[in-house]
C-alpha cells in the first residue's frame, strides 16, 4: 500500500499528516506540492521597503537591482496588493520587473495591476494595461472581466467593459 496516496479510513480524516480527503478527493498530491512551496513573504517585505523608500541616493530601480531578489508571479502579485492607494509606485515596480531577464507578466499580475489602477480611479491606466495585456499575449480571464466590470460599473461605463472583451 502506498501511504502517500492513502488518506485515512475514507471518511475524510487525516492520518499522521499524510493527506486529507475533501469531498471524496485525495489531497495527497496537493500536500506533496505544498512541501516544496517557498515562503515569499520576506522577499515581498524587502521589495515593499525598497519601493517605498524615498530617502536614498540610489533610484528605486538601482536598489531593486542590488537587492538580489528572485521575482516570480506570487512575489509580484503580493507586492502590487500593497499599492492600492499608491498606484504610481505599483506601476513603477510593475514596469521595472517586466524588464527583468526571465520574468514575464502573467494574467494574474496584469489583473492585480489593473485592479490597483481601477481602485485608484486611474481609468486611462486601466485601458493602457488592458491593451498591453493583449499585446503581451496574456489571456483575459473571468477575473479580468470582473475587475473591469467593477471598475467601469462604479462609473456606469459598462459599455467600456464590454469593449475591452
TrEMBL record:
Spans annotated as Disordered: 1-26
Membrane-spanning parts: none
Biological process per Gene Ontology, one example term: RNA splicing
Designated name of the protein: Pentatricopeptide repeat-containing protein
Organism in which the protein naturally occurs: Salvia splendens
Amino acid at each position: 500500500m502506498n501511504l502517500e496516496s492513502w488518506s485515512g479510513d475514507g471518511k475524510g480524516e487525516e492520518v499522521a499528516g499524510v493527506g486529507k480527503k475533501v469531498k471524496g478527493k485525495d489531497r495527497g498530491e496537493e500536500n506533496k506540492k505544498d512541501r516544496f512551496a517557498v515562503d515569499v513573504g520576506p522577499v515581498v517585505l524587502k521589495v515593499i521597503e525598497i519601493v517605498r523608500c524615498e530617502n536614498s541616493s540610489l533610484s528605486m530601480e538601482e536598489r531593486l537591482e542590488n537587492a538580489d531578489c528572485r521575482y516570480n508571479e506570487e512575489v509580484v502579485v503580493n507586492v502590487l496588493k500593497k499599492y492600492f492607494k499608491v498606484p504610481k509606485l505599483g506601476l513603477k515596480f510593475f514596469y521595472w520587473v517586466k524588464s527583468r531577464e526571465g520574468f514575464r507578466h502573467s494574467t494574474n499580475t496584469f489583473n492585480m495591476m489593473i485592479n490597483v489602477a481601477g481602485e485608484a480611479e486611474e481609468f486611462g491606466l486601466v485601458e493602457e494595461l488592458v491593451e498591453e495585456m493583449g499585446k503581451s499575449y496574456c489571456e483575459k480571464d473571468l477575473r479580468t472581466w470582473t475587475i473591469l466590470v467593477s471598475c467601469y460599473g462604479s462609473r456606469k461605463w459598462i459599455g467600456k467593459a464590454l469593449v475591452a472583451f
